[in-house]
Amino acid sequence: MTNTFATTRLTILLPAGRLPLEIMAKVNELAHNYRFELYLSTMQNLRLMGIRPEDLEAIKADLAAVGAQFKGPGKFPIPRVCIGRRDCTMGVGDPEALSRLILQKFAGRPQTKAKFKIAISGCTLACSGVLTTDIGLMATRQGYDIYVGGKGGPHPRTGRRIVRGADEARVLAVIEELVEFHHAHTEKKQRMAKLVDHPDFPYKEAV
Ligand code: SF4
Fold first, then answer.
1. Hey, which of 81, 87, 90 would you mutate to test ligand 1's pocket, going by the most ligand atoms within 8 Å of its Cβ?
2. CA angle, 147 then 152 then 158, to 5°
3. What is the pLDDT of residues 144-198, one digit of tens each?
4. Fewest Cβ atoms closer than 10 Å to its Cβ: which of 21, 63, 122, 130?
């Protein structure tokens, strides 16, 4: 089916699903001025839809001026998170804090290949989908369990647990190893599910 309306879209990245007030106010103002629609994406970003192509650059410039960052090729994926221990009685971990550490370490990584995703949960109930995400970080009372190779879609798959009880430094080191392995074994884009059975994959199942 073709898009007969010939509009375009723009996605504002929202680390840990947090929407800064300055960006919220500017989006509100621009949505009234340019009459576009707002959508909260499944990856917790804010998508502006139904933008007239001739308005796009002006909208981007106004949003960039208040600190907005935009989705684009080669950017390191922002983790999807749950609210964690501060705001959930079940929580034992702080996904927002771990997300910040991950982005501090990897946000400047040049040309990260698509298309793996990361999710973090504050407990084993896994509300943010850590078991069905390429790299899933699940807080437990002993530290983070790390899962790899989960995916949704028409052929869903549960991730394989490769590390148990990791502290934050270990989590970052494991992610780095996984991302480099993905980079080295990926042409353009690939889910982690395709790599977990590779003979050189660096981790076995952690039981
Ligand atoms: S995964 Fe756990 S901590 Fe996070 S929202 Fe769900 S129940 Fe709460």
1. 90
2. 35
3. 999 999 999 999 999 999 999 999 999 999 999 999 999 999 999 999 999 999 9
4. 21
pTM: 0.94
Domains along the chain?
8-64 (no CATH), 80-194 (3.30.413.10)
Question: Which stretches within 73-206 are classed as H helix?
Answer: 95-106, 168-184
| Ligand 1 centre distance from Cα of residue 48 (Å) | 28
State phi, psi for 22 to the nearest 5 degrees.
Answer: -65, -40
DSSP-assigned states of every residue in 100-134: HHHHHHHTT-TTPPBT--EEEESSTT-TT-GGGSS
The protein residue with its alpha carbon nearest to ligand 1, atom 2, reads 123
Classify strands 143-148 and 46-51 as parallel, antiparallel or unpaired: unpaired
